[in-house]
Specification:
The complex is a heterodimer of chains A (306) and B (303). Chain A contains 12 helices and 8 strands. In chain A, α9 links the parallel β5 and β6. Chain A is elongated and about 70 Å long. Helices cover 51% and strands 14% of the residues of chain B. Chain B has an 8-stranded mixed sheet, sandwiched between helices. In chain B, α1 packs across α11, α4 packs across α10 and α5 packs parallel to α6. Chain B starts with a helix and ends with a helix. Classes of the chains: A alpha/beta (306), B alpha/beta (303). The interface between A and B is large, with 56 and 52 residues. Bound molecules: guanosine-5'-triphosphate (GTP) (2 copies) and magnesium ion (2 copies). One magnesium ion binds next to α5 of chain A.
Chain lengths: 306, 303
């Protein structure tokens, strides 16, 4: 895989650049060529890459080179700082203020919404909340059954009205049920849909208007390629997202979609899905994601040691 | 959307530039990258284009379009008619479906069952995903919809045993085709890939030359990781073809070009929606056309 040669390539690009007081344009150019390739191979959207590269170039040129670093390493240091910054810097938490607090899960087909609904319910229960899961996918075969099985696994109740009611009604009744029964958090699972499917996007808007969620979370598969920007942009425009959950990060993808989504929506990534089991959910760490996308953990360690 | 509109703009602007220069090649690279073709494959495509332009002494950017299509179609086609499905001429045909989580394996099985049933074949399904919540019920609903039998065990049981039973049942009921579902798994999970190898072995032991097709289901929205998926699933189950799903979205599925180039696995089917007739045989010319024209068509068609 192209991936494996990256660190080496970077090292050799950097090796040529040694012992100058200031970072020159030539230094930056050589290093940024490798960075650009690394980001593209990690599936960061090509436009996001362009913007990023020109921004870093500006910042890096003319910088004093730290004693311990070569100019190339200095550039990488800047790249990593900017990338972490772009990814949100610090970790972001859920903002749950209403009673009950409502969380709506949205996204493309197969992204991991239903599984993550179960995981997040479990996570919030551990924080001493009383979650109710709502089965709002009436389209996918056995979607309700899937959420019910997950509900059993995490020992949480599932509110369902079968697949003959509209998702808007189900969401509304689910929230009413939570009020009645004193649940403080409602997690609404919705059917997967394409961002260009107008009817289905209207349905989400209608649900959102009725239940006024505290959090509208876009669930994104970490393996998503260049199209991630289109998807995120549309969902954000139609719904006003409050956060993103990146799933399937237990795979070996570099996960550049994280950067694409972040930069077009300006929404923080709040959690990472790390497996199929209900306990495989972790808070998202921007700085770890930055080095994963760059695929050069060793280069960074080298810089940290210096 | 804004992004797709500007992409469409980029597509037509490439071929309507007034000369073939470096800028044009760079724009073309961007377009291929934005379709998930990947850096290496994009470079090869553009290099081949450069060579041809020189040899044929082309000057007009308009002439690039057919040339580029030719290169891409050629890359996708390989030799012979590999797009067709291999079938057992006398007896049971077994088709295995593999892939990472959530790509569309179970749905594609429903669609393909419908396709073969329409052709008058007797089709059966084996519920080899015994892991994911609701997976067996999902396949059973598809079985009902299409009107074919589903062989199932309990949740949590051994997938190889379900597939074994599926084969015995298909034989005794005189089925022509058995479609085997498996649980989604990420290719870096070593023990899950071992489990899949066992399923593959059981099929081969029970029916000579089976599975007749081992299809990797790939979500068209996937980026460069799809290449790694194809590589590892090929090692485990000797995949014979790809089903590219969710092509009804805005993703282009360009990674199929890289997979063909590096691993020589052909795309056989395209998934275009969630209903049972949303499946089409792969057509290289159409695919390449869509790679460049899809956004434009959507805009004019949808306006
Ligand atoms: N390895 C891994 N698999 C995951 C993760 N999250 C979800 N999955 C799997 O991905 C597949 C799809 O998950 P679902 O929860 O059904 O996805 P969904 O978005 O609800 O799908 P639709 O309702 O069909 O749109 C299942 O096989 C899940 O087990 C994750 O973090 N890691
Ligand atoms: N738009 C669209 N959606 C599709 C297509 N194929 C499958 N889907 C949807 O994608 C989601 C996942 O499909 P499944 O068939 O459950 O995928 P799977 O690979 O069996 O998933 P796991 O068994 O969990 O690994 C479902 O919501 C399907 O309806 C397609 O071609 N287009
Ligand atoms: Mg779901
Ligand atoms: Mg399945």
């Amino acid at each position: 895989m192209a991936f494996e040669g990256l660190s080496e390539r970077l090292q050799s690009a950097l090796a040529k650049l040694k012992g100058k007081g200031k970072v020159s344009e030539a230094d930056v150019k050589a290093a940024m060529r490798e960075v650009r390739l690394a980001l593209l191979e990690a599936d960061v959207n090509y436009k996001v890459v362009k913007d990023f590269v020109s921004k870093v170039r500006e910042r890096a040129v003319g910088q004093e080179v730290l004693k311990s670093l070569t100019p190339g390493q200095q550039v990488i240091k800047v790249v990593n700082e900017e990338l972490t910054q772009l990814m949100g810097g610090a970790q972001s938490k859920l903002e749950l203020t209403s009673k009950p607090s409502v969380i709506m899960m949205v996204g493309l087909q197969g992204a991991g919404k239903t599984t993550t609904t179960g995981k997040l319910g479990r996570y919030l229960k551990k924080q001493n909340r009383r979650p109710l899961l709502v089965a709002g996918d009436v389209y996918r075969p056995a979607a309700i059954r899937q959420l019910e099985v997950l509900g059993e696994q995490v020992e949480l109740p599932v509110f369902s009205m079968g697949d003959q009611e509209s998702p808007v009604t189900i969401a509304e009744k689910g929230v009413a049920e939570a009020k009645d029964q004193d649940y403080d958090t409602v997690l609404i699972d919705t059917a997967g849909r394409l961002h260009i499917d107008e009817t289905m996007m209207e349905e989400l808007k209608a649900i959102k208007e009725k239940v006024e969620p505290d959090e509208t979370l876009l669930v994104v598969d970490a393996m998503t390629g260049q199209d991630a920007v289109n998807v995120a942009e549309s969902f954000n425009r139609e719904l006003g997202l409050t956060g993103v959950i990146l799933t399937k990060l237990d795979g070996d993808t570099r996960g550049g979609a994280a950067l694409s989504v972040r930069s077009v929506t300006d929404c923080p990534v709040k959690f990472s899905g790390m497996g199929e089991k209900v306990d495989a959910l972790e808070p998202f760490h921007p700085e770890r994601m930055a080095s994963r996308i760059l695929g050069m953990g060793d280069v960074l360690t080298l810089i940290e040691k210096a | 959307s804004k992004t797709s509109a500007s992409l469409a703009g980029a597509m037509s602007s490439v071929f309507s530039r007034n000369k073939i220069d470096e800028e044009l090649y760079e724009e073309l690279e961007d377009i291929l990258i934005s379709a998930d073709v990947g850096v290496d494959t994009t470079m090869e495509i553009v290099d081949r284009l450069r060579v041809e332009v020189k040899e044929r002494k082309l000057k007009d950017p308009e002439e690039l379009k057919p040339l580029l299509s030719e290169i891409l179609v050629d890359m996708l086609k390989g030799e012979g008619d590999e797009a067709g499905m291999n079938q057992n001429p006398d007896g049971l045909t077994v088709i295995l479906f593999v892939g990472v989580n959530g790509v569309g394996k179970t749905t594609t099985i429903g669609k393909l069952a419908h396709h073969y049933k329409e052709e008058g074949k007797k089709v059966m399904l084996a519920a080899g995903d015994t892991f994911r919540a609701g997976a067996i019920e999902q396949l059973e609903i598809w079985g009902d919809r299409v009107g074919v039998d589903v062989i199932r065990h309990q949740e949590g049981s051994d997938p190889a045993a379900v597939i074994y039973d599926g084969i015995q049942a298909a034989r005794s009921r005189g089925a022509d085709i058995l479609l085997c579902d498996t649980a989604g798994r990420l290719q870096n999970k070593v023990n899950l890939m071992e489990e899949l190898k066992k399923v593959h072995r059981v099929i081969g032991r029970e029916v000579a030359d089976a599975p007749h097709e081992s299809l990797l289901v790939l979500d068209a929205t996937t980026g460069q990781n799809a290449l790694q998926q194809a590589k590892i699933f090929k090692e485990a189950t000797n995949i014979t073809g790809i089903v590219l799903t969710k092509m009804d979205g805005t993703a282009k599925g360009g990674i199929a070009l890289a997979i063909r180039r590096e691993l020589n696995v052909p795309v056989k089917w395209i998934g275009l929606g969630e209903k049972m007739d949303d499946l089409q045989p792969f057509n290289a010319e159409q695919f390449v056309h869509a790679l460049f024209a899809k956004e434009v068509e959507k805009e004019t068609g949808g306006a």
